[in-house]
Amino acid sequence: MSLRILFVDDDQDVINGYRRIYYKFKSEWDMFFALSGRQAIEIINKEKINVIVSDMRMPGMDGDELLKEIQKTHPQILRIILSGHQDEIKIIRSLSSAHQFLIKPCTPEDLKAAIVNAYALRNLLEDKKVINLINGLGKVPSLPDIYIKLENELNKPDVSFQNIEEIILKDPAITAKILQVVNSGFFGIPRKISNLMDALNLLGTNLVKSIILYLETFSDNHFDDKAAKFINEIGKHSLRVAEITRIICKKEHIPKTISDDIFICGILHDIGKLILINFENYIEAIDHKSNSSLSISQAETELFGYNHSGVGAYLLGIWGLHKDIIQAVAFHHNPDDLIYHKDCMIDILHIANGLAYYKFKDFDIDKIDFDKEYVLSKYSEGKIRKWWLDINLES
Questions:
Q1: Is the pTM of this model over 0.70?
Q2: Is a pLDDT exceeding 60 seen at residue 220?
Q3: What is the greatest pairwise CA distance in the chain?
Q4: What confidence tier does 122 reach under pLDDT thresholds 50, 70, 90?
Q5: Are 127 and 306 within 8 A, CB to CB?
Q6: Chain centroid to CA 69
Q7: DSSP-based three-state secondary structure for 48
Q8: What is the rounded distance in angstroms from the CA atom of residue 143 to the CA atom of residue 72?
Q9: C-alpha angle 263/266/272, rounded to 5°?
Q10: Which residue, among 154, 169, 168, 170, has the nearest Cα to 205 in the 3D structure?
């Protein structure tokens, strides 16, 4: 089935250019074109559109306003801004309405890759209710005290990115949003950034302040005490997993570029839970099922037909994060299902997640919550034991 893509730009010459440039994809795409936000809405109300690619600055209804309207009325549509205007304020505004921000000039191949990769992630989920929920979200829940700590640190005359990094890494939602911004086309960086310190240095103090202020302004603190506690536990566990990956990578002399990616995977691996918490009675349902000896992931799958791994990967994918990070998040509970992966990223994440939950005084590999058969096909029991001892010494 062809992808149905709507291009929106108020310049007729640009629209004509789209028709000419993307004609090569006519066997794969059904393309529609609009010269205004209103015209785009008319098309969407008549046609089934999968993806919208819109300019930012347009008279009447600009790109951000258009995507916000589509977000409310047609949340299943993937939303991409493709603009030549590098306006920081506009970009920050668009973070809640656009899944990705690409900067002109953008090659047909780059745009195709962005669209196809994001849309292909739908294979991880089949439930339209979940897809609509994710696509309709402008944010992921975070705890208010994170914002307070960041604001205090950012307002110091001698801002320390090291302190800011330490605070942000405790919150998967803010970590993901910072990485989404720095990996947007606005910065024109030829490589994907997964190291948070690199991201902070590239963004600079003022833009980090703007992003945090935006997230704080539009944060939704409607969660009750039980949900807030759940969110806090996710943050603590995610940081613990990330710290364990760093210890393992250090012991195994993993190159820093890969180690940084695995660390970020640790921070983000449970971000799907912050999406699912928006479902009514999610926590109560998971608590009930988990009491029957099921893991949270198994309970989610039994109750809803999907779990937080796929939900989180889908979100990170449409945000444009690196495919290796997306794959690791998607399969961190079942790495054996990933047919091909070129490095140790998912293996270390899977093991670190299991060791983070391990609370026994003595080592017993049968009590670690991971795929024992898969892990032992890659690493010896003695090596796992050594990692566990190193983790306990450094914790």
A1: yes
A2: no
A3: 70
A4: low
A5: yes
A6: 22
A7: coil
A8: 25
A9: 140
A10: 154
